[in-house]
């Protein structure tokens, strides 16, 4: 082998690299924890952990200053695999290390996968209400709905990111193109009568002319959410239909008629529809007597299966989620004087990975340290 | 002779502990103690009035003892009795701590009127060198009362500001306002404001109750009635509504045959119900009777009423009453205070064994540590039984448990190595963690109720206990390393055998710490997955635990790879103290930055001092080995 490759191999299999990477990861985690004060936990995850490089702002430039979570995690993985491949030896002496490291690989890969595929939604239910969809707490969409058939809505959902990029959307269901004219990641909406000084609105259809949309600073705080707005122009074969103002702050969809059909358009939190539906029978909020310390929150929910029928009743409460049809429903919050429950809805196909990984690592560490302990005890007896 | 000394030392200490725990507080008569044992429902759980008194005093003034103006002392129970029944006296006791200079000037205090003047020359000298306080920190309610409006106005301004972004003045004013309301809620718990003879009033009500109720009914129905009687009853009713609304102490047990055993009432609420029942609630009458006797210094009748009411309660609420009694004994025994002193003595004995007198001092130290550990075990077990919970439920109990776990490991180490290192470490950690716990107790009742998301004995018993054991063992490795460095650099006592033994201990403990911190952290992840739908959320507390795991893994890999030898291992282990203290406390202070408040402000300062001291130790350890007194060439020694 050429000396350069031998050198590279020696680095890749070395414990020196392991220690170096572990030290890097400690600094990364520490720095990210401190940065949460300014950025909030979601933005920190994107900046530090779900990234190859951590960027810092120097003047107006974004300069990479530190390896991100993908880089450090990836290199640790490579280091681990190379070291095991290179130093492979048969025998029980290293069984603990092997098990622990196999578990570690599963843990890292599992977290990578769940970071990529996990989706978070929320379902808000008033007592007695039934819903068959949940809503994203982060992402929004522009829904253009063909509502001609009163029994069936046909929905075209345009993700927020496409509005932001300004891409023109043409969809076979729609007899017009959707042209984003402006997009504000966070905004406030007022009636024009209350904001007399607002600049002229580009909108000339629907609610638009009465509204004043003002861009607002993007928030990263956990207890706040961004309320985006946009101006979109609809363009048919014979020319523009006009420009609408849309915003998640507007409650009801805006209606219009075109090409002999009835349409509705609304910007709303991204929805996840299910074939079944949930009904909230009762929400309870127990407190300890004589205090306002919460003792328990629970939602009694009925699952109505797609094939109809009675369905079954389940109780969702703290530390006791409902796992159903690949989704998990958690008691997250409540509202409206204890009459509304808010369930966190999570789709995470790799949720089992950390359970298995942790069991494997624990087992491995126990085996390894018992081997050490046995050796130590033998040594003392001899001495 | 030789092995008699340790037995003697430990026996003396044990006797001191026993005497201390059964010793009667000065001035507290049997009847006052019995009053302290009466159960009430406060802050969500049934507890003795003694606990109400003690935790209130800790919150508002940072200590349990109360001084009268003439510098005589009151027990917490006597203080509570005065608050309930002789508020004009209680208002003169100095129990409100005010330290913030701006707040002091708001309530008309300055350097001159705060200064304490001592008459005796000796006291003046003591005050000058700081052994006696030179200025007043505590104010009485009557001193503050004239400024209540200003305080309330400032509190209204400060309250909407998030706790983390408040200035020191803002936090101080919010805290003082909270303490004053806490005090007033107690003052109004059993008798309405400004009544001198509540018992007489209630007895009068008892007599006129049926006529009064009749008059009010007739009035409501528009029939002829005795207006004076109706008006008197309505006035009483309004007074009782006022009482019910201005307290949160649920002192009155549920009625006979009540469905919900937790449906305790305020005295005002129970009195309002007497209109419907046709008689005045007997427990309220009993409390008013105690008040009458207490105000008029009629000790025998006070004792009699307390005894009667107590035995009546015991018939109906046997288990709760017995629990309250044991809690009172526990409060008075203060096992953690006793253990703190024992640990300190153990540490001194262990050091003595290195310098002089190896065998007797070493065995004495071991015995003392075992005694201290037994006392803390009893204390923690009592807390668990009272609460019906696993050992760690809040920051306070985590401090107790970290100390307990580390000391247990130290006992094993000492039993294996017999070189007083385990006991020295045990003394240090035991003392320090109990001291930390003492300061954490100032936040209020340490047996607090668990918020909904934490209300899971399974996870509290597994995740929290295991991860706390991980913290404990990481600290222990660090403290052993500190002993190595201090003995090596500053004394000649670190011979090769001791150094090797210490290195093996640190290595073993780091292995143990890696296992427990890893398992504890991932159990936490699994709990989070069960309750929030994510295994890992990069939340500060999770990150803190993760850093401990990675740090321990780093130490092990560095040693396996031969990157560090003995001294390097010790430095890494000392840095483990920094990492662990940050995870334990630092993550709770995030977002607070430089304008922190209350206890956390002090904690921030101590955390910084601790971290600086550990870094200094690492710097000391980095001196060339030739400068270490233990490792100097033999030629240098005489």
Walkthrough of the structure:
The complex is a heterodimer of chains A (383) and B (638). Chain A is α+β, with helices and mostly antiparallel strands and 383 residues long. Chain A folds into 3 domains: 3-117 and 352-382, no CATH class; 122-130 and 276-345, no CATH class; 136-272, no CATH class. Chain A is built from 7 helices and 17 strands. In chain A, the strands form 4 sheets. In chain A, strands 3, 4, 5, 11, 12, 13, 14, 15, 16 and 17 form a 10-stranded antiparallel β-sheet that branches. In chain A, strands 6-9-10 form a 3-stranded antiparallel β-sheet. A two-stranded antiparallel ribbon of chain A has the order 1-2. In chain A, strand 13 and strand 14 (312-317) form a beta hairpin. Chain A starts with a helix and ends with a helix. The mean pLDDT of chain A is 86. By secondary structure, chain B is mainly α. Among the domains of chain B are: 39-187, no CATH class; 198-318, no CATH class; 480-628, no CATH class. Chain B is built from 26 helices and 6 strands. Chain B has helices spanning 4-22, 30-37, 49-61, 76-85, 87-90, 101-106, 111-114, 121-128, 141-144, 148-158, 168-187, 198-221, 227-245, 267-277, 282-295, 299-316, 318-333, 335-355, 358-387, 395-417, 421-440, 457-490, 496-532, 540-560, 566-584, 598-621, and strands spanning 39-42, 45-48, 66-67, 73-74, 94-97, 138-140. A two-stranded antiparallel sheet of chain B has the order 1-2. A two-stranded antiparallel ribbon of chain B has the order 3-4. Chain B has a two-stranded antiparallel ribbon with strand order 5-6. In chain B, strand 1 and strand 2 (45-48) form a beta hairpin. In chain B, helix 22 (457-490) packs antiparallel against helix 23 and helix 22 crosses helix 26. Chain B starts with a helix and ends in a 17-residue tail after the last helix. Mean pLDDT of chain B is 83; it is low at 592-599. At the A-B interface, helix 2, helix 3, strand 13, strand 16 and strand 17 of A face helix 23 and helix 24 of B.
